[in-house]
Design goal:
The protein is globular, with a radius of gyration of 16 Å. A seven-stranded mixed sheet has the order 3-2-1-4-5-7-6, with helices on both faces. It is α/β, with parallel strands linked by helices. It contains six helices and seven strands, in the order E-H-E-H-E-H-E-H-E-H-E-H-E. The longest helix is centred in the middle third of the chain and has 13 residues.
Length: 211
């Protein structure tokens, strides 16, 4: 199957992406909806979760992506391989965060990853960045005790801003004071691989929500 071609970046503040979307009945999505859930925000083509889900069958995985065609393609891969612990959802998380997180089985959200989000370099575009205070507040409400948030970017400014916003919330504690030298997850993203192949650094940090 040839990858679909899509725009690399879309403006999440445009009217098209401000409409709420219908949320599924999770009992019809996952074989065991009560398993711990890993939420990957901004999953792009979804290859990261596609490789991770078979390795961790005792977890459920949910990838969120704002580009509908990528979601459709990723769910075709999921169906082809009958990965019943994996789902992809078309969603603007900054519009749907509270409704989406509230819809999940109570206490299941155990891990969140936000990896290589669109950097939106121009200052006037910073409001388009995914990690906004309202999102952090909602993640704090719904992430289970002892849950984790993993953040990484190849742009230090973006990584620092994401980490600062999470660090400022009293619910979260960083596991280290410095950038992590290695990815704690067993599967790298495509962007991570490409960055390493170019010999460039990746800036990452892991946060936990203490019990």
């Amino acid at each position: 199957m040839s990858p679909v071609r899509v725009r690399q970046h879309v403006n999440p503040l445009s009217r098209k992406y401000q409409q709420p979307v219908s949320l599924p009945d999770w009992t019809t999505i996952y074989d065991n909806p009560q398993q711990p859930l890993h939420l990957d925000i901004g999953c792009a083509r979804g290859r990261f979760l596609y490789e991770l889900a078979p390795q961790q069958p005792d977890w459920n995985f949910l990838g969120l992506e704002i580009r509908q065609s990528l979601v459709d393609e990723a769910n075709q891969w999921r169906d082809r391989d009958n990965l019943t612990n994996l789902h992809y959802l078309y969603c603007n998380i900054n519009v749907m965060s509270e409704a989406l997180l509230e819809s999940l089985p109570e206490g299941c959200l155990k891990r969140i990853s936000i990896q290589f989000p669109d950097p939106w370099f121009k200052k006037r575009h910073h409001k388009r960045r995914v990690v906004q205070p309202k999102l952090v507040e909602d993640l704090a409400r719904f992430l289970a005790p002892d849950g984790e948030i993993f953040l990484q970017s190849d742009v230090e400014e973006v990584a620092s801003e994401m980490c600062d916003r999470v660090w400022e919330h009293p619910a979260f504690t960083a596991t280290t004071d410095d950038w992590l030298p290695e990815n704690p997850l067993p599967v790298p993203t495509e962007r991570e691989i490409a960055t390493h192949n170019k010999g460039e650094p990746v800036y990452r940090r892991l946060f936990c929500r203490p019990v």
